[in-house]
Amino acid sequence: MTVTSLFLDMEEKNVLIVGTGQVGIRRARRFLDAGAYVSIITHGIDYDIKEEFINKGAVFYSDNALDELIKKCDLVVVATDNMELNREISLKAHDKLVNCASDISLSNVIVPSTFNIGSVTISLYTNSKSPLMAKQLRKKIQSIITETDILFIELQEYVRYLLKKHVSSQDDRKEFMIHVNEDEIVQKLIEEGKLDEAKKYVKCLIEKIN
Ligand SMILES: C[C@@]1(CC(=O)O)c2cc3[nH]c(cc4nc(cc5[nH]c(cc(n2)[C@H]1CCC(=O)O)[C@@](C)(CC(=O)O)[C@@H]5CCC(=O)O)C(CC(=O)O)=C4CCC(=O)O)c(CCC(=O)O)c3CC(=O)O
Ligand SMILES: NC(=O)C1=CN([C@@H]2O[C@H](COP(=O)(O)OP(=O)(O)OC[C@H]3O[C@@H](n4cnc5c(N)ncnc54)[C@H](O)[C@@H]3O)[C@@H](O)[C@H]2O)C=CC1
């Protein structure tokens, strides 16, 4: 498998999860939180987790719904502890997006280690070499992204919006955005968490351009 990373819009996509052990639960939660329609085939699930998933819109089915569910699903996640069964289901779903938790060679989709902070999503993948290291690196990266970084993103969103109205050249917009990030007053305001004040200050700068 040779991969490239993409972010998929999961809203209203149909996802089937087979097996609700540690992996199935993690993936079901992830896709429910991303707005997908999630169908689940389970041989046993904690009552509270089942309730959580039902509240998020999941629908539970028995084994004999498998073939029909595969047909209507966009993505199938196979996560039972029965390797043979995982293989069988993954092969049945070969023309869909498939994530087989136990055998990478049967997957055409990888679930990376992901975290969200503010409006940033970071995902990483060790090419199936070390999921544990993926988890550890995820925590390392998570720890170096600060509230200030997030506020700068919010400010840049605002700056981009204003610049698109006031400045026609992309190159000029880019230069101005770099200039804003390096501006000492902007830096001070953002470091103090004063996003609204930073926006007001930058708005004045932009209005002076024309
Ligand atoms: C290929 C992949 C599946 C795919 O998604 O397609 C896959 C496969 C397998 N994982 C296994 C084991 C473990 N997986 C984890 C944890 C995570 N595994 C995740 C992803 C992936 N795991 C994909 C590749 C990702 C990459 O390479 O970067 C994460 C990142 C995302 C998620 O699952 O949500 C999540 C961390 C989430 C976080 O950030 O917290 C831990 C640690 C723990 O549980 O604490 C262990 C135990 C330690 C170890 O074994 O390393 C086994 C062996 C089972 C066995 O030994 O039988 C297989 C199967 C095999 O390798 O054959
Ligand atoms: N991709 C990953 O991150 C990881 C993958 N794995 C692999 O993924 C698989 C699942 O791992 P875990 O979730 O940790 O296992 P687990 O033992 O926690 O859960 C397996 C679940 O499969 C269910 N199951 C068994 N037969 C079923 C059937 N016919 N229909 C529906 N459900 C059925 C069991 O009831 C159980 O809840 C294992 O094969 C393991 O090798 C394990 C750890 C991490």
From TrEMBL:
Substrates-to-products reaction catalysed: precorrin-2 + NAD(+) = sirohydrochlorin + NADH + 2 H(+)
GO molecular function, one term: precorrin-2 dehydrogenase activity
Keyword NAD attributed: yes
Signal sequence bounds: none
Family matches, as Pfam families: NAD_binding_7
EC number(s) given by UniProt: 1.3.1.76
Flavoprotein recorded as keyword: no
Keywords: NAD, Oxidoreductase, Porphyrin biosynthesis
Pathway annotation from the record: Porphyrin-containing compound metabolism; siroheme biosynthesis; sirohydrochlorin from precorrin-2: step 1/1
Entries under InterPro entries matching the protein: Met8-like, NAD(P)-bd_dom_sf, Sirohaem_synthase_N
Gene Ontology BP term (one): siroheme biosynthetic process
Matches recorded under PANTHER family: SIROHEME BIOSYNTHESIS PROTEIN MET8 (PTHR35330)
Protein name per its UniProtKB record: precorrin-2 dehydrogenase
Organism: Methanosphaera stadtmanae
